[in-house]
Amino acid sequence: MTARRPRRVLLAMIALAAGLAAAPVPAALPWGAGSSELPTLAPMLEKATPAVVNVNTESHVRTPRNPLLDDPVFRRFFNLPKQPHERERKAQSLGSGVIVDAERGYVLTNHHVIEGADLISITLRDGRQLQAKLIGSDPDTDVAVVQVPAKNLSALPLADSDGLRVGDFVVAIGNPFGLGQTVTSGIVSALGRSGLGIEGYEDFIQTDASINPGNSGGALVNLRGELIGINTAILAPSGGNVGIGFAIPINMARQVMDQIVRHGAIRRGLLGVATQDLTPQLAEAFGIRTDQGAVISQIGAKSAAEKAGLRVGDVITAVNDRPVRDSAALRNSIGLLRVGDEVRLGLLREGKPLSLTARLGEGRGGRVADSSGGGGKALNPRLEGASFGNLPDGHPLSGEVDGVLVNAVEAGSPAARGGLRRGDVILGVNREPVAGIEDFAQAVTGNRALLLQVLRGRSSLFLMLQ
């Protein structure tokens, strides 16, 4: 009869076998040292928390006085002394920051934490209070860099935030509600969040780690204690944490910081294109099999894109060998580069891969040009409910461009469901330009699907009517 092994030995053997067979899990809970077998984050936090600081700002705000105080009759009646036209009051705010360079004393925080501050004070974990100097900030990404005297500082190592995955464990460290340093934990809930209207350039890490007012500028770290993001915003209808917080990926913050430190300001390069996301319908219309990329719907005259040879209908799939999943990703990739930088663009043209190099322009010189066009008569069932016409002489773009004007669209009609709106200008049908009503009528005749290039306001886009 075979002797039974103790239960703990059997469990250990099973765990060892499972460990040999399974791939390592990058975000596993750490185990405490010693005889205790309870998971703990304490060893990592002991190293990470000294690099997270409290940021206190003080500013002087001028507020105009009540107009009644300027009325001499009112002042005489109440015997009021003459007062200055504006009053000055002190405003204070609290936030958080992260030391990222101990040798030079650089601290990353949010632009909105230090915006308008006359005095910036940093409080370290050990209780020291240091006066900080603003190196520079960028409101479009909400990133700011301040500097403190570099003496006995501790910095957080920077991770590669591009390697994050949904489900990775994360820890948020900051100064919520001015209570002092606080640590919360959670997971990465989503990646690449954009279109929130919080900042100009958005590529947020979403997390359910508790983030509250005062956490802004604090650290989001992985279980190795590496900085993966700068906490910046919460979705909080009630004003408190509801489990939806956002952090700026450290790769984005690092690029902004590098420009601020080297040049003192951000000079963004411009490609000069208008784009839209590549949808499955557009991919089918363009004859390509990928579902990720940014479709060029318009190119600015004399822009970097025009000089590089880009065309309307090209699908940009990579910038400097980094994949582009949609228009927001393209905007972020280009917006973090400087004027004069050369970028390698991977794209698909007529379904075939192509690589081009563009040198980014400056200011608004690469602004997307305005276009417009004339009329037409709907001869396709997908256009039912819409009426078309040539561009009238009084139209602001009359004589400048060719196309077809959408005069009216009935609510609930096939044309409305397809995305057409009154005032749209149709520039092309199935990737062929239309000069006016006759070209348009000929191009849409029949019962086939229509790929329309449309000018709407100041933007150009593609509509797929199936």
How would you describe what is shown here?
This protein has helices spanning 7-21, 42-48, 72-78, 111-114, 250-263, 280-286, 304-308, 327-335, 414-417, 437-444, and strands at 52-64, 86-101, 106-109, 119-123, 129-138, 143-147, 169-174, 182-193, 204-207, 219-221, 227-234, 245-249, 273-277, 294-299, 315-319, 322-323, 342-349, 352-359, 386-389, 404-409, 425-429, 432-433, 450-456, 459-465. The protein is of the alpha+beta class and 466 residues long. It folds into four domains: 49-80 and 88-147, Thrombin, subunit H (Beta Barrel), CATH 2.40.10; 161-263, Thrombin, subunit H, CATH 2.40.10.10; 273-359, PDZ domain (Pdz3 Domain); 381-465, PDZ domain (Pdz3 Domain). The strands form four sheets. A six-stranded antiparallel beta barrel has the order 1-2-3-6-5-4. The chain has a six-stranded antiparallel beta barrel with strand order 7-8-9-12-11-10. Strand 10 and strand 11 (227-234) form a beta hairpin. 39% of the residues are buried.
